[in-house]
Amino acid sequence: MDKSMLADLDSLPEADKQRMTVMIDQLQIRDSLRMYNSLVERCFSDCVDTFKHKSLQKQEETCVRRCAEKFLKHSMRVGMRFAELNQGAATQD
Amino acid sequence: MASNISPAAFDKEQIFGMAEKEMEYRVELFNKMTQTCFKKCVDNRYKESELNMGENSCIDRCVSKYWHVTNLVGQLLGSGRSPM
């Protein structure tokens, strides 16, 4: 969630501010859980192909770690670019 | 239910409802953009945990294009033209 949403809250009366904060918190929790689920699904499908063992093998674990780390870095980068677009900044091709 | 709410309170409810929908839409847009661009730009063999130069360039361009597609489709839908 971008901070600009939170900044706008300061001009609201207290009760409305509280309500908006609750709304944003719930949205944030839902969003985090959704991201968690989709990341598990993505990394599992990319990293786990064999089922000779029921525990994760070393190679699979390494792959999952890299997948998750890459996704988080990717998400941060997308967030920065998304914020720029929202502010109407010109971008080079 | 509506009869118990004053006009001012009703307006406030509508405003809160719209604000919530707007926020949900923006979060959903960001999530779809993130997942789409990850799928298109990131090599799924995960040789290392850092994004490489090619992946970074692709991500930046993907975000920009996705944004433009979102606006373009929005315009087409808004103009009343049918999807066909």
Automatic annotation (TrEMBL), chain A:
Q: How does it assemble?
A: Heterohexamer; composed of 3 copies of TIM9 and 3 copies of TIM10, named soluble 70 kDa complex. The complex associates with the TIM22 component of the TIM22 complex. Interacts with multi-pass transmembrane proteins in transit.
| GO annotations of cellular component type | mitochondrial inner membrane
Stated name of the protein: Mitochondrial import inner membrane translocase subunit
Source organism (scientific name): Glycine max
The protein's topology relative to the membrane is:
Peripheral membrane protein
The GO terms this record gives for MF are: metal ion binding; protein transporter activity
Q: Which family does it belong to?
A: Belongs to the small Tim family.
GO annotation terms (biological process): protein insertion into mitochondrial inner membrane; protein transport
Q: Where in the cell is it found?
A: Mitochondrion inner membrane
UniProtKB/TrEMBL annotation, chain B:
Q: What top-level branch of life does the organism fall under?
A: Eukaryota
**Localization of this protein:** Mitochondrion inner membrane
Q: How does it sit in the membrane?
A: Peripheral membrane protein
MF terms in GO: metal ion binding
Share an example GO biological-process annotation for this protein: protein transport
Instruction: Mention any Pfam family matching this sequence.
Output: zf-Tim10_DDP
**SUPFAM superfamilies in the record:** Tim10-like
The protein's UniProt keywords, in alphabetical order, are: Chaperone, Disulfide bond, Membrane, Metal-binding, Mitochondrion, Mitochondrion inner membrane, Protein transport, Translocation, Transport, Zinc
Q: Which residues form the Tim10-like domain?
A: 17-77
InterPro entries recorded:
Tim10-like (IPR004217), Tim10-like_dom_sf (IPR035427)
Q: GO cellular component terms? A: mitochondrial inner membrane
Which family does this protein fall into? Belongs to the small Tim family.
Q: What does this protein do?
A: Mitochondrial intermembrane chaperone that participates in the import and insertion of some multi-pass transmembrane proteins into the mitochondrial inner membrane. Also required for the transfer of beta-barrel precursors from the TOM complex to the sorting and assembly machinery (SAM complex) of the outer membrane. Acts as a chaperone-like protein that protects the hydrophobic precursors from aggregation and guide them through the mitochondrial intermembrane space.
Q: How does it assemble?
A: Heterohexamer.
Q: What is known of its domains?
A: The twin CX3C motif contains 4 conserved Cys residues that form 2 disulfide bonds in the mitochondrial intermembrane space.
What is the name attached to this protein's record?
A: Mitochondrial import inner membrane translocase subunit
Which species does this protein come from? Glycine max
Classification from the root reads:
Eukaryota, Viridiplantae, Streptophyta, Embryophyta, Tracheophyta
* This protein's encoding gene: LOC100790120
